[in-house]
DNA sequence: TTAGGGTTAG
């Protein structure tokens, strides 16, 4: 090209600004045609041009689309940089693909590109969310060993991950440490804490953190209020939760679907279906794009109304709109079908779920186990339980109650002992039913065995997902931390390091 | 470019 570099410097920057604006506005096709025009005019796109497009494609269409842009940039002689890989790792993380994210991270290291905290943050986030906290911790340790300073997002991701992995008090102690050490604590940190503490049942601590937030300069936002509402609904302060929602609505603070879904699902749970429908209409009038969580909420509402045809129509609408049914959708449908007595149709849904290879199907299975027990088909429930890869407290509570209901106390006590030995538990009412049944039918031996069984320490389960083998380790270059070099990190690592990883 | 809030079962 005859044109000198200096002459094109400004136009390339302008091209990038223009592309970024188009991508932000969701006009990807327009951005692509601007790029075609620019190349035709002899204007050279640079790494920023491609990174802008790559991030937008990744967000809109997923990782594959992002990788295609990386292919195009290489063909054009533009080499990817840290930003390219960070966007791809984030793309993989958003889609819940930890192996892909780790592969990209590894590829980045092999290419000699130095990762920064934006390479690590989505990787950690994705590993925590996909039920691999021990790997997320290794990633954090690796970051510390390489001397990369964590940013506020790193700490927030770590806190959120610790809550998800079941280590609420470690997260709480780390939050206090961040405050003492003068490390970044923002409204995001407060929201993570309030939400995590509420979800793990530490309502008193949550209230304390909320009061503290009121004394700081950080302004609570819609995320804070949604977390508070959810906590009210969960812990018996229904009207207070609803009042919070209504006052936010009055003041015009509700601009997205999150608070709507929270309140609709709470109303459905209470059986207040009329009000749930009203807020559903408001949410639709609001004009926000419905995502899969919104659809799941609406499908659940239709199922609870007994309108299964409408529920399935919503599933079709959702899929036609390019959204996929997830494990929630299936669990909701299986539950809805069971409640209406359509056991065979529910079994069919479970079968689809298996074919789709969905990781977490324990809730859907539990719904069917419970329904079979309620219809006094306990032998079928036992057969189903034997097919389940993962069983939890819900599974055994339904079965034990079901067996007691039909007077099979010996069998109920057998499953209760298996359950306790596996590190699971049942509701106190199920345990009481077994003991009362054994006593009244004179099964003294079983009674003694049930009383003497020592429950195994409960394993941490990550959102009902099966624990899989570590993803980081032999296969990847990430190494365990030996001597963390940064002061702030040392102590943060200490909080995670004390966790007894299962 | 990157993080935080909303959906299911006993």
Automatic annotation (TrEMBL):
InterPro entries per UniProt: PPR_rpt, PROP1-like_PPR_dom, TPR-like_helical_dom_sf
PPR repeats mapped onto the chain: 46-80, 81-115, 116-150, 151-185, 186-220, 221-255, 256-290, 291-325, 326-360, 361-391, 392-426
One MF annotation (Gene Ontology) recorded for this entry: mRNA binding
Domain PROP1-like PPR: 59-191
Signal peptide range in chain numbering: 1-25
Annotated keywords: Repeat, Signal, Transit peptide
PANTHER family listed in its UniProt record: PENTACOTRIPEPTIDE-REPEAT REGION OF PRORP DOMAIN-CONTAINING PROTEIN (PTHR47938:SF7), RESPIRATORY COMPLEX I CHAPERONE (CIA84), PUTATIVE (AFU_ORTHOLOGUE AFUA_2G06020)-RELATED (PTHR47938)
Family: Belongs to the PPR family. P subfamily.
Designated name of the protein: PROP1-like PPR domain-containing protein
Organism taxonomic ancestry: Eukaryota, Viridiplantae, Streptophyta, Embryophyta, Tracheophyta
